[in-house]
Amino acid sequence: MDKAEELFLAALRSALHGDELKLNEKPEQETLRRLFRLAREQSVLPLVTQSLAQCAETRDAAILRIYTRLARAETLRQARRTGDFLLLLRQLSARGLRPAVLKGIVCRSLYPEPEQRPSSDEDLLISPEDFPLYHDAFLACGLRLKDPDRSPDGEDEVTYIDPDRDLYLEVHLRPFSDDDGACGDCSRAFADALSRAVPVRIYGQSIYTLAHTDHLLYLICHAYKHILYGGVGLRQICDICLFAQRFFHEIDWELVRHSCEDLGILSLAGAFFRVGQRWLSLSCPSAFADPELDELPLLIDCLSGGVYGAEDPDRLHSSRITLEAVASARQGRARRGLWNSLFPGKDYLQSCYPYARRYPGNGWSSCENTRSFPEFCVRFETERSAPESRALFSVSGPWCLFSSVKTEYKVGIAGKQ
């Protein structure tokens, strides 16, 4: 870990606790430049700039003034989005609709300065039976479908946008799609979760969200999903650990641990808490305390991939292989992972690329089972820029996945680790 990464973690830690950042010496210009790049990649720029602005060794740095302006603009944008989202919830309530809010504003409320924790979107969980009511309500409130060419009927997740208000809304009809071969098992942990929703007060307004035990488990499973799809950032780990701290006495820790064990992500969840404890001075619940667990590979992976792994294009290419291998292992398919990765099916391509939906005859045969390469290629690399942190989460099955962290946290089939 280099000086910029160490300073980044120190600044983030200070911001999470509202403490003053203290350094033994002034950091070099290049170190600060690298630090701000990390802060933007991890989507925590306002948090980090706040710490550096209060630190005697960094407050006069010229580069800090540049990023402080960017951070203030980002914080103001977030404050406007928060106000618009709360207004939308009031409009839905006036129509008798009460969705459960996921992540987003609930996680922001855990931070000393909530609007310094950016959210690019807001997530709502609703009952599939109520979707027509919500759809009409969203349209009446000025929102529109992000992808108007795609029918929302039968979808597990529908996205709405309001460009005038900079509002981006993801509406989930299920916490996790049953059709997701890699993460579909997570859905069983949230049966009847909507019926257990609880009210919380945020900015003086009562909103409904998942019960605290359900919500913590959802945050853990959601982070696991992001790992499979490319990577998880430190902001998500902060959310998990801060949520666990805030609602510690309301959480059924035995149930959370049992659910993680059943889903095969117990050691991964322990690594999340271990990162928070060792590097960010956040508490680790005893249900996940494991002094022998090495969290450093996960931390390195978080720092290298950005908030969702998108900072490394190779990870996005390899995520398809990761997903197929995990799905193959969980579903007992012997030798399909690599084949499905090299030759994606038409349904997968159309779900990822609007062009493929608009022109279904271009690039592949109309036969449902035909697979080919429509204008893209798959690239394999055996060496990475950081060979000391190359490996990945292993899965039980015929195919092994390789990305950017050492094989430390095993993701097994349900009930196995």
Question: Would you kindly provide a written description of the structure presented here, covering whatever features stand out?
Answer:
This protein is of the alpha+beta class. The protein folds into 3 domains: 3-60, no CATH class; 79-210, Beta Polymerase, domain 2; 211-342 and 370-417, no CATH class. It has 15 helices and 7 strands. It has a 5-stranded mixed β-sheet. Strands 6-7 form a two-stranded antiparallel sheet. Strand 6 and strand 7 form a beta hairpin. Helix 1 (3-17) packs across helix 3 (45-53) and helix 7 packs parallel to helix 9 (253-263). The radius of gyration is 22 Å and the shape is globular. Mean pLDDT is 80; it is low at 317-326 and 363-417.
SSE diagram, text form:
Blueprint: H1 3-17, H2 29-41, H3 45-53, H4 62-94, E1 100-102, H5 104-108, E2 122-125, H6 131-140, E3 144-145, E4 157-162, E5 167-172, E6 198-202, E7 205-209, H7 212-229, H8 234-246, H9 253-263, H10 266-280, H11 296-305, H12 313-331, H13 337-342, H14 346-352, H15 354-358
Parallel strand pairs: 2-5
Antiparallel strand pairs: 1-2, 3-4, 4-5, 6-7
Helix pairs in contact: 1-2, 1-3, 2-3, 3-4, 7-8, 7-9, 8-10
